[in-house]
Structures are given as C-alpha cells and as structure tokens.
Amino acid sequence: MSEPTTLTSPSTQTAAARAVVASLGKEESYLRTVVRRFFRHRLAGIGLFAFLAMILVAVLAPLLAPHDPNQIFDQFQAAPSSAHLLGTDPVGRDVLSRLIYGARVSITVSVGAVSVYVIIGVCVGLAAGYYGKVVDSVLMRVVDVFMSFPYFMVILILVAVIGPSLMNITLAIGVLGWPVISRLVRGSVLSIKNQDYVKAGIALGYSTPKILFQHILPNALSPIIVNATFGIANAIILESGLSFLGLGVRPPAASWGNMLSDAQSITVMTSQPWLWLPPGIAIFVTVLAINFVGDGLRDALESRETKSHR
Amino acid sequence: MSVIEATTRKARARAGVPDGEPLLSVQDLKLHYPIRGGIVSRQTGAVRAVDGVSFEVFPGETLGIVGESGCGKSTTGRAIIRLENPTAGAVVFGGRDLAGLNTRELRRVRLNLQMVFQDPYSSLNPQKRIGDLLAEPLVAHGRASRKEAGERVTEMLDRVGLSAQFKGRYPHELSGGQRQRVGIARALMLDPTLLVLDEPVSALDVSIQAQVLNLLRDLQAELGLTYIFISHGLGAVRYISDRIVVMYLGKVMEVATTAELFANPRHPYTEILLDAYPAPNPHLRDKERTVVEGDVPNAAKPPSGCVFHTRCPFAQDKCRTEEPRLGGGSHAFACHFPLDAGRPTAASGNPETTKNPGVPA
Fold first, then answer.
1. Cα distances (Å, whole numbers) of residue A129 to A147, A193, A211, A224, B84
2. Which chain B residues are closer than 8 Å to A199 by Cβ?
3. ipTM score of the complex?
4. In CA terms, which of A138, A185, B216, B230 is 20 to 30 Å from A106?
5. Do A196 and B123 touch (CB under 8 A)?
C-alpha cells in the first residue's frame, strides 16, 4: 500500500494504531511514531496479531485443548471426525490437542533461546565495542570461532551429548546464537561511543556500566530488536528440525517438530495428511508471522534518525 | 571593572586558589596519535595533534583558544579534562597534576572540570528527557534524591533561560539554541569551577550565538566560573575572552590579553588570522590585508624550525632551522622576527567594536 493512500483513507491498521497511540499518552512521542509506522505496514500488523494469538494459544492450552495431549484413544490414525477434529496419531492421541500443546514448546524454546543469546551477545558486543583494543580483538576472534561452527551440526551434537530436553535445546540454541548479535552491538557501540553525549557522561563521572547500559545500549537497541525477532522465527525452525530428527523434546511431550516426524513414512505422507499438515502449517504460519513483524519493526525503528534526530 | 573583579574574587574563593595563582596550568602538553604500519603494526610515526602547549588559566577569567581547524585546539580542550590521554606534559588543576591521579581520584577531581560540546545535536542522549538528563549527574553522585534533583533542575533550567516545561521534552523537540542551553545546564549541575567550552556557538545561528554568549557571560559573573573558550570564530572569542591563545599546528603562537592581541599582534600568523576576519565596519574593509597561501602542513610531518615558516610571508633562513620559543611576559609570542608593536592594523581600527555583542563570527 502506498503512502498517499494511507494518508487520505486510513485503513483498519492505522485506526488500530491510533487506538494504541492514544493509550500511550502524549509524552511518548518516539514510541508513538514507531507504533504508527509499524501498523502502516499491513502485513506486520497481521503478523503481530497472529503471533500474539499463538502465544495466547500456548498460554491457554489446557483450556483450549479438547483432550489431554497424552491420552491414548482406541482409534489409531483415525481421520478427522467430530470426536477428533484433526484425527488421531499412530499411537491414538488427539492431533489437535497435541498441536495446541506443541505451541508451548515452540514458543518457550524460541523465546528462551533468543533471550539467552541476546543477553550474551549484548554483553560481549558492548565490551568489545567500548573497550576496543585487546578486549575487542580477543572477543571478536572468539566470535569468529563460534561463527565458523556448522551451526545445526553442533547443536545436534550438543543435544546428543547433554541429552534432549526443553531446557537443553533452549541452551544449545542460545549458546550458539550470540555471535551475530554481538557483532551488531559492537558496530553500533563503535559509532555511538564517539557521540558527544557519551563523552559528556565520562566528564560527568558516570560509571562505565551506567554509560554502557543507560546511554549506549538504548541507542543501539533497534537493530537488536529486529534481529531478535528474526531469531525467534529461526529458533522455531531449529527446534522443529531437532524434534523431527528425534533430538528435540522428549516424547511423549508434543512438539510441532516431533509430530512432523510421523511424516517420515510414505503412507502417512500420501494418505494421512491430517498427521503432518497441521504441524507443518503451524510452523509455516508462525514463522511467517514473526518475519512480518520483524520487517515491520525494522521499517518502524530504523528510519528514526531522519525524523526525530534532527 | 568591578564586575570582572567580583567574578575573579568569587571564582578564587570557590576554587580555593590564592591570589595571583592560576586555577589551571597546562605545561608542555603533548598529544600524539600513533600511526601504525607494516605487518606487525609497528609505530611508524605520529600525528602531533598537540605538541608542547603551555598556558595558564586564572580564576574568573575567560581564556580563548583560536586557530584554524586542525590546529589542535579542540584536542587540547579534551586533553585538559582527560577525555583523551595526553602523551606527555602536565595539567595542573588545584595544585595537583591530573596525570598523576589514579582513576578514582581523577574521576572526583574531574567533576570540577566540565565541558560544553560543539554539536548540540549529538551532545544530548536522544532517548532521555531533558529533566532526566539534568537530574542524572546529581543522582549518579548521590548529591540529591530524585525529588530534590527535580527542584535543582527547575532552578538550573530557569538560570539558563528555559522554563520548567522543558523537563518532559526530548532533545529532538528542541531547537539548536535550546539544546545548547541544556548542554550548558548539564555541565553546571555539579557546580564545576572550570568549564571547557568547545566551540559552543559555532553550530548556531548568528542571532542565537549572541544570546548564548551573553548567557555564558551572565553565568560566569553569577556563579564565579572560569572558562576556556575554544573557537575558530574570532568575533565570538573576542567578545567573551579576557585573554587569547593563538594556536597553529599543535603549538602556541601567541598569548595576550584580548585588547592587546587585536591591537598589536606580534606573530605574523596572528595578524593573518585577524586580517582574514572581515572588519565589522564596511568602510574599513578596503585596507590592505595580508593573505596567507597554501594549506596547513601535515601534522604527522611538521615543518622544521618554526612550524609556520612554510606559509609565513616574512620567513627567513633562521625560521627554517631553529624553532622559536614562546617568550614570557603578559604578551608572549613564538617568533624570531615579530611584527613591530604599536602599529595600527585592520582589526584595531575600530576599538568600539571590541565589545559589541551583535557580531560574533
């Protein structure tokens, strides 16, 4: 959608944006601009809505699921019916219920892993960028080492060694994901630390952590947020991949990835689509929604300088 | 002048400096940026940004530092408050050499030296409201609770000519002049005795420049402040400074009181600098001017002897081999063949303009 159109005939998204804006109050002018720009991006609005819906489903799983996800019924691989809306799996469990509980795994692992690696990445990036010299060289060589690992293989091996569990997958993805963030942060810090407001902070005798976390980090946040958003989508795919290979969450717990592993057989692929289509679509829709949110955030956050900086 | 005397007395009392003693003394300050090259990145040379600068600043005065861009005036300012570490030399403040202090002591002593920056756009954190920016120094050093800090912020905003409404605004909502006032207010929150003003008005419109310069003057008289005023704009420097240091290629060329410097420049560079600045009175503009040719030499390879000899119209053989020393006395200059004292120059033709507030460059 082109800009003039939105300006003359406001869409539902901009109306929604206005409602959000109104609730934020007048002083948050920067946030208001960001929210308005974000919702001007129609797909981003839809994506955010879909992602929030997914989180809601995960949180309310016990209320929404028609059955216990681990309860075994006497029909195996039953086609969708009124009793089992999406049929049952080869063990006789309700597919819809497992799908709903699977959202919990995907969201916990992805958000958890991204939180872990954003924290590590931010700290490493801040230190490397701010202190420079030897600290920077050493940390960046560590980053190079981490980046040269074949990501998926290392996670596979890590999980295989420490054992597959929700916690372990989260940690494995988190511990390997930080280098990208730390490079991003380092780059921002390098330019921000030469700004006069940082120099003023030094002259005013602020402690280094205060300068790093209160003056530099808030100004380096937008690329981190955007990257983290895409990271969540990535982590969902990684987790599904691991579960598909049997190294994800331990059965009988449901996850979208281990539900998909049923599709390893040709019979299931060709004649029982209710077993693999729902988890596949769930992964696809969630990842797509998050990527749209990421795109919207990038547009909303990164064009900031032009308007509010001068 | 009684106002100046009162300011001096106030500043002397606040800093605890005895009569006739400088508040800050810069001694043979050097700041060289290493140039590294080769495979093992050995140091192959150095950019001599500041190369042996000495001067003193007395309580209550404004010392102007002028020179063209790249002459090391800003670097000198930053080295004084230790935003950059000097390669050699001493900065003695309140009887103590800042170079000899450990990190913690330095941090405490440095609070008495604050800085106002050139670019009012990059000197304020865009994510913080004005009220928080100004309260932060007090809260961070435990000098006031959040609530008390709020009152002090209102007072300070009032002092720099801004209303309390500005507390809730973000820097991008302010004009350049307003931001610079906030920058000055922030520097004053911790009651410093000395302010390094690094081109504080160069980025502002001419009409706003005059306002900010007047504000700085009023604050100086009111609070007994001492200023180091760095600028390339001769008008602004002349308006606000009591004494002026002229720098060229990292070295001091001439030091004199403002009136003396403008009336009797002794160093050829000073005269050229003054001549380059158009006289406020258009009828005086047809006087013959000394114009300098060529560019400032590379600070990594400064010329031998007097650093100005490559561009000096009066350069002799001696200038190319022997470096002139900065003479002593109240009017010091570093030149083997100084200009004659007492002859009229373009800039001194109209003494009335000396303190004319309307014409900062």
1. 18, 8, 13, 15, 17
2. 78, 83, 115, 117
3. 0.81
4. A185
5. yes
